[in-house]
């Protein structure tokens, strides 16, 4: 058996596992030794929260005798997810899926610091038999939006729907459109941003191009409306990397207004009163898992974003 050393209470040092035995895929090796699902392990590997001999790796990497695995953030999945009677804005529902309009401030699924009050808790109360294909702590969840990003999300109710939607996200055939208020006046009418991104090598809570494991990322944008100090953009991400739109716009020196992580001083335009990043998932198009027909769903920006736009239009 491998030896596992845990950090002292109150310390942030990683948990270290010294590998023993014959070579084996790291995800399969860990799933038998940790009280978490294989999908959770794979996500942690993708997010570079699991390192081998100090370096990021892939789920298919084979660990061998003498390797050391570092678990930077690896806690047991909250399998006892409790249904909570939280109101959710359901745009559409059938036997296979749900379309919801996620509000600002709602976390999609439980994580450290957010073990209740999430969209997953609300979904379990609304629909008791959601698929757990993506993990017990993520019932029905196929994709995510940041806590302070509002908008359209698709939720799988069955295993079949989850597999179909996951495959569509993986091959980037899902048609997603966002509305963003970017700081400054963008000169180009439209453009394309190609910038590989990943976990920042010096600040692992952030995503940037300064990474040891860059992943291809592409974002298309079109100017909808220009104002004196900002620009309203229609954005179509071609890939779905974490924080992609926010990082890409910051790279152009036009960060999302209100973005306190990637915006710097430029994004916090004080007179606008933006309390969060002005980013909204406006629409989603995909092939329905049951009918195979292409469907589209949309939702207007929330009140706080509408208020910012009104202030900008009023000069």
In short:
Helices cover 18% and strands 28% of the residues. It has seven helices and 18 strands.
Mind explaining what this structure looks like?
With 315 residues, the protein is an alpha+beta fold. The protein folds into three domains: 3-71, RNA-binding S4 domain (Structural Genomics Hypothetical 15.5 Kd Protein In mrcA-pckA Intergenic Region, Chain A); 89-171, Pseudouridine synthase, CATH 3.30.2350.10; 175-285 and 289-298, Pseudouridine synthase, CATH 3.30.2350. 18% of the residues lie in helices and 28% in strands. The chain is built from seven helices and 18 strands. It has helices at residues 26-31, 38-46, 119-126, 159-170, 244-251, 264-267, 303-313; strands at 3-5, 15-18, 24-25, 50-52, 55-56, 62-63, 68-71, 89-93, 97-102, 150-156, 175-183, 190-194, 198-199, 207-208, 218-226, 230-237, 279-287, 294-298. The strands form four sheets. Strands 8, 9, 10, 11, 12, 15, 16, 17 and 18 form a nine-stranded mixed beta sheet that branches. It has a five-stranded antiparallel beta sheet with strand order 1-2-7-4-5. A two-stranded antiparallel ribbon has the order 3-6.
- How many β-strands, per DSSP? 18
The secondary-structure class comes to: alpha+beta
Radius of gyration: 21 Å
Helix content: 10-25%
How many helical elements? 7
Show the helix and strand layout.
Layout: E1 3-5, E2 15-18, E3 24-25, H1 26-31, H2 38-46, E4 50-52, E5 55-56, E6 62-63, E7 68-71, E8 89-93, E9 97-102, H3 119-126, E10 150-156, H4 159-170, E11 175-183, E12 190-194, E13 198-199, E14 207-208, E15 218-226, E16 230-237, H5 244-251, H6 264-267, E17 279-287, E18 294-298, H7 303-313
